[in-house]
Design a protein that fits this description.
It is a single chain. With about 180 residues, this protein is an alpha/beta fold. It has a single domain (about 1-175), classed as Rossmann fold. The chain is about 30% helix and about 35% strand. It has 5 helices and 9 strands; from the N terminus they run αββααβαββββαββ. The chain has helices at about 1-10, 25-30, 35-45, 65-75, 130-145, and strands at about 10-15, 20-25, 60, 80-85, 95-100, 105-110, 120-130, 145-155, 170-175. It has a 7-stranded mixed β-sheet with strand order 5-6-4-3-7-8-9, with helices on both faces. Strands 1-2 form a two-stranded antiparallel sheet. β5 and β6 (about 105-110) form a beta hairpin. α3 (about 35-45) crosses α4 (about 65-75). The radius of gyration is 15 Å and the shape is globular. About 40% of the residues are buried. Pfam families: Pribosyltran.
């Protein structure tokens, strides 16, 4: 059902934010209560074992659309939500990792105390493209002493092979394009 909702509601926006990039607009999915509910449930499955038990302590959402998805996933799992932000957006002491994007360079930060040593962490984002954001977030989680458990994304741009940058962390995608 989640895959069907994504296929039906995600809108391609050509040449955004730069010429040659096709932006995947998930706003229609978010605006449809039934689709949003199904998608959140499907993303949360990556934080459960085969018997449906929660196996993660925290859910990390990557700036910015990952926040929209990760916060309700954390609620569904009964876990805390942790934002990974662009540089300079968090008010306290942070870990930082810089990486390459499909159309530039970025730095992500995470509060140093957001994840406790030993925490098992589910990473949630909207689109897995080149894998730079996932790789950087894995590093941030590990710098805090946490363990990345899995990556859960709405869509994966399979032709970009971003999952190869997940450093062995399982990647669950609701839709591969």
């Amino acid at each position: 059902m989640a895959r069907s909702a994504l296929e039906r509601l995600v809108v391609d926006v050509p040449d955004f934010p730069e010429p040659g990039i096709v932006f995947k607009d998930i706003s229609p999915v978010l605006a449809d209560h039934d689709a949003f509910t199904v998608v959140i449930g499907a993303l949360a499955q990556s934080g459960r074992d085969d018997q449906g038990r929660v196996v993660v302590d925290k859910v990390v959402g990557m700036e910015a659309r990952g926040f929209i998805l990760a916060a309700p996933v954390a609620l569904a799992l009964g876990c805390g939500f942790v934002p990974v932000r662009k540089a300079g957006k968090l008010p306290r002491e942070t870990h930082a990792v810089s990486y390459e994007l499909e159309y530039g360079r970025a730095t992500l930060e995470l509060h140093r105390d957001a994840i406790a040593p030993g925490d098992r962490v589910l990473l949630v984002d909207d689109v897995l493209a080149t894998g730079g954001t996932v790789a950087a977030t894995n590093q941030l989680v590990e710098q805090c002493g946490g363990t990345p458990h899995a990556v859960s994304v709405l869509m994966e741009l399979g032709f970009l092979d971003g999952r190869s940058k997940a450093d062995g962390v399982p990647v669950d995608s609701l839709l591969t394009i």
